[in-house]
C-alpha cells in the first residue's frame, strides 16, 4: 500500500540531527552493564540517498516522507535498541524501541516490539503483545539493515504492504523431519499505520506462515487477510474527493478512501546461502477491493563473497493488477483528469536493476553502496514522489538512485 504525504522544505536535516542525538544516547545505554538475566542490544543505520533528479525523490511506502533535499538522510537512517529479560519456567519479555522519520516528517521514538513469550515445550512458543507483522520472508530483520545484503529491501516487493506492527498473538511450532526443519506460525491481531492526523488500520488480521530450512536452503510461504481502513488526506485526494462529491459521481468517492476495505496478502520466498554465494528471491501479491490498487511484485538477488567484500546484483518488478476504481468520468473531462492523477499517484508499478557492494569493515559494521536504475510504469509514480508541491507526473520516467549506508549492530 502506497501512502504518500508532502512536507515543507528543510525539515529533513533537522529530523536527522535528532536521530544523531538519539543514537548517541542509545549507544551509551547499550554499553551499560546488565545482569545475567538481562540482554541489551542495538542497531543503527546512517543512510544517504539521491536520485540525481531535481523534481523526484525516493519514497519508502509507509516509512518516509517526501523530500526536496538533493541528498536525503531520512529514507534509510534508523536507530534502535532492544532489551530482553529472561524469567524462570520458560518465560521472557522483549522490548524494542526505534527512532526514524515517519510520513509526517517527524522523528519520535516508538515501541516496535513489546511482547511476552511463553515456551511450554522446547519446540513451541506463544507470544503476546506487539511484534513485527510477518508478511515477508525477511520481516523480522527488515529494520536491522546490518542483517540484510542490500541498503534497503526491494521496494517493488516490500512496498506492497507497509504495515509493520502486529498487536496480538502468534504461535511458533518447530519440528524436525529428517534433515528438514519446519516452522509453522499462525498469528492474529491488528495493525495500525500512523499517517499525518490519520490512521490506516488492519482491524482483524489473521495469517499463517510456513518456513522450512534444509542444508543451505530456506523456503517461506505466507498468507494474511484483514478488513482495513485507509483514510487518505493528501492534497490530490482532498481535491478529487471534494470535486466528486459535488458531481453526479459522488458514489465514486467512497471507492477511494474509507473504512470498509478488505485485503489479502500472499508471499513466497527462497534463499540459498553457501560459503561464497548468496541467492534469494521473493514474490508477493496484494489483493484489495478498494482504496488501494491490487498488485504483485518480485525480486531476485545474487551476491558473491570475496572475503569481507560482497558485490551483488538485484532485479525487481512490480505490476499493477487492478486500479482502485474503473469508474468512467469522461463525460466531465476535468473530473476524469483529477481521478487519473489520483490513480497514477497510488500506482507504484516499476522495474529496476541494482548493482551494489557490501564491505564488512568490522564484525559489527558494514558499508554499502548501490546504484539503482528504475523505470516507472506508464500511469504510475513508482517508488518516487515529486520533490516539491508543484506536482508533476512521474509516469514512464527513468530515474537513477545512488544509495550509501553505514550499518551497525551493537
Task: Provide a descriptive summary of the structure in words.
This protein has 410 residues and is mainly beta. It has one domain: Beta Barrel (Porin). Helix content is 14%, strand content 51%. It has five helices and 18 strands. It has helices spanning 11-30, 155-158, 235-245, 250-256, 333-346; strands at residues 38-50, 56-58, 78-86, 91-99, 110-121, 124-132, 165-177, 180-195, 198-214, 217-230, 258-273, 277-288, 294-304, 309-322, 350-362, 365-376, 384-386, 398-409. The strands form two sheets. Strands 1-3-4-5-6-7-8-9-10-11-12-13-14-15-16-18 form a 16-stranded antiparallel beta barrel. Helix 3 (235-245) runs antiparallel to helix 4 and helix 3 (235-245) runs antiparallel to helix 5. The longest helix has 20 residues, at 11-30. The radius of gyration is 21 Å and the shape is globular. The two termini are 32 Å apart. Residues 5-12 and 27-34 have low confidence and may be disordered.
Amino acid at each position: 500500500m502506497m501512502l504518500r504525504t508532502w512536507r515543507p522544505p528543510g525539515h529533513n536535516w533537522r529530523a536527522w540531527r535528532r536521530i544523531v542525538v538519539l543514537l548517541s544516547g542509545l549507544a551509551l545505554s547499550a554499553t551499560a552493564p546488565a545482569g545475567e538475566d538481562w540482554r541489551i542490544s542495538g542497531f543503527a543505520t546512517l543512510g544517504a540517498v539521491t536520485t540525481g533528479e531535481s523534481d523526484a525523490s525516493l519514497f519508502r511506502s509507509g516509512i518516509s516522507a517526501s523530500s526536496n533535499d538533493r541528498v536525503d538522510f531520512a529514507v534509510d537512517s534508523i536507530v534502535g535498541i532492544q532489551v530482553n529479560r529472561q524469567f524462570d519456567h520458560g518465560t521472557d519479555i522483549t522490548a524494542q524501541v526505534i527512532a526514524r522519520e515517519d510520513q509526517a516528517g517527524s522523528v519520535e521514538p516508538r515501541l516496535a516490539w513489546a511482547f511476552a513469550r511463553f515456551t511450554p515445550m522446547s519446540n513451541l512458543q506463544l507470544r503476546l503483545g506487539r511484534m513485527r507483522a510477518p508478511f515477508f520472508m525477511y520481516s523480522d530483520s527488515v529494520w536491522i539493515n546490518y542483517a540484510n545484503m542490500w541498503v534497503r529491501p526491494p521496494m517493488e516487493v516490500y512496498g506492497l504492504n507497509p504495515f509493520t506492527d502486529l498487536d496480538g498473538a502468534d504461535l511458533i511450532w518447530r519440528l524436525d523431519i529428517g534433515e528438514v526443519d519446519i516452522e509453522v506460525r499462525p498469528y492474529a491481531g491488528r495493525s495500525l499505520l500512523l499517517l499525518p492526523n490519520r490512521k490506516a488500520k488492519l482491524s482483524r488480521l489473521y495469517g499463517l506462515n510456513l518456513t522450512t530450512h534444509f542444508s543451505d536452503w530456506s523456503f517461506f510461504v505466507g498468507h494474511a487477510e484483514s478488513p482495513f481502513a485507509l483514510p487518505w488526506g493528501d492534497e490530490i485526494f482532498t481535491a478529487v474527493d471534494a470535486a466528486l462529491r459535488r458531481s453526479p459521481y459522488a458514489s465514486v468517492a467512497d471507492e477511494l478512501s474509507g473504512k470498509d476495505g478488505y485485503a489479502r496478502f500472499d508471499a513466497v520466498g527462497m534463499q540459498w546461502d553457501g560459503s561464497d554465494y548468496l541467492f534469494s528471491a521473493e514474490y508477493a501479491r496484494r489483493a484489495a477491493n478498494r482504496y488501494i490498487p491490487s498488485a504483485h511484485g518480485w525480486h531476485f538477488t545474487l551476491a558473491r563473497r570475496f572475503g569481507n567484500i560482497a558485490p551483488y546484483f538485484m532485479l525487481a518488478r512490480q505490476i499493477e493488477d487492478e486500479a482502485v476504481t474503473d469508474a468512467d468520468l469522461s463525460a466531465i473531462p476535468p473530473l476524469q483528469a483529477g481521478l487519473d492523477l489520483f490513480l497514477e499517484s497510488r500506482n507504484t508499478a516499476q522495474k529496476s536493476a541494482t548493482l551494489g557492494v557490501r564491505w564488512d569493515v568490522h564484525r559489527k559494521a558494514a558499508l554499502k553502496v548501490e546504484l539503482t536504475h528504475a523505470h516507472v510504469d506508464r500511469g504510475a509514480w513508482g517508488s518516487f514522489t515529486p520533490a516539491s508541491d508543484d506536482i508533476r507526473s512521474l509516469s514512464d520516467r527513468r530515474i537513477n538512485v545512488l544509495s550509501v549506508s553505514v550499518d551497525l549492530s551493537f
